[in-house]
């Protein structure tokens, strides 16, 4: 299960195009998955992540998204699905649905009740064990920012790494000191697990720690640039990496406005992809509110600045 090479590289978290009636635009989604996966260096597709608006999808829709992506890719690269639920029983049901739909891994998020109420010391490890025992596919650990109550400690991460199904860690501490500590500790104590950054806004600084790759929403928008960046860093060509990162920096400013992903950032990326003609609609489900015309104009100007649209 712990095939480090398989779980290394770039894993774009792809969005889900919706029709105006809130239904999934399956044709557009298939085209998007195929387009993202066509880029060299993309070693897997992540669906039902925050970029994919998992919180607005019904359980059966989450499974459908996995099934569509798996059918489109036909095993060429793995499909990983985000799994988010409040109770272990429901989490297991979601994880099993991913496996049954053709997914090769899950990105296991913490119960969001922990964000408010925190968690008991042994709860995360037992949570991962219970889910792992119920499925036969890989688990990518979703590490939340260090300033939240659901961010796992170094000790908890090491215990989780011992679970056979756990194949990779998506680290998103957004505190560089904590991030570096976790990277160095996992590299030493859990060398068979891949480490992936999810810091869209700190890609180059987090990649140079010698990790295996990136699992980021921005990989859906510019998979070629993210793949080039990861490749240059792995080849220790920092000059070339910085040149690519300069382009990513400009795009980050246009899309995310330099912040980490927030309540509107994924919608801003969806708008940018719509303006580029990659998807057919820019619609998002409630409670996400539509962008203002001024926000859309900002994105247009940003895309024009970097030559992505005329």
TrEMBL record:
GO terms for molecular function: 4-hydroxy-tetrahydrodipicolinate synthase activity. CDD domains: DHDPS-like. Pyruvate binds at residue 51. Coiled coil: none annotated. SMART domains: DHDPS (SM01130). Pfam families: DHDPS. Keywords: Lyase. Belongs to the DapA family. This is Dihydrodipicolinate synthase family protein.
């Amino acid at each position: 299960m712990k095939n480090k090479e398989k779980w290394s590289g770039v894993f774009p978290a792809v969005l889900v195009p919706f029709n105006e009636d809130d239904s999934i635009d399956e044709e557009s989604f298939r085209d998007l998955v195929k387009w993202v996966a066509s880029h060299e260096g993309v070693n897997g597709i992540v669906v039902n992540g925050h970029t994919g608006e998992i919180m607005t999808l019904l359980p059966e829709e989450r499974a459908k998204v996995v099934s569509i992506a798996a059918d489109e890719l036909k095993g060429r690269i793995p499909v990983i699905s985000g799994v988010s639920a409040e109770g272990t029983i429901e989490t297991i049901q979601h994880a099993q649905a991913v496996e049954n739909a053709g997914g090769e891994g899950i990105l296991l998020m913490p119960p969001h009740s922990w964000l408010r109420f925190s968690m008991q010391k042994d709860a995360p490890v037992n949570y991962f064990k219970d889910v792992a025992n119920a499925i036969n596919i890989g688990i990518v650990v979703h590490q939340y920012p260090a300033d939240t109550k659901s961010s796992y400690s170094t000790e908890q991460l090491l215990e989780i790494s011992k679970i056979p199904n756990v194949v990779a860690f998506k680290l998103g501490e957004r505190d560089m000191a904590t991030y570096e500590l976790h990277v160095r500790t996992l590299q030493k104590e859990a060398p068979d697990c891949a480490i992936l950054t999810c810091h869209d806004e700190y890609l180059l600084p987090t990649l140079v720690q010698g990790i295996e790759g990136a699992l980021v929403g921005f990989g859906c928008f510019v998979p070629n640039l993210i793949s080039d960046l990861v490749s240059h860093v792995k080849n220790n060509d920092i000059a070339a990496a910085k040149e690519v990162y300069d382009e990513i920096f400009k795009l980050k400013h246009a899309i995310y406005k330099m912040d980490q992903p927030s309540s509107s950032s994924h919608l801003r990326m969806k708008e940018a992809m719509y303006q580029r003609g990659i998807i057919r609609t820019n619609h998002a489900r409630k409670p996400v509110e539509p962008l203002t015309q001024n926000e859309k104009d900002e994105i247009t100007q940003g895309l024009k600045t970097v030559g992505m649209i005329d």
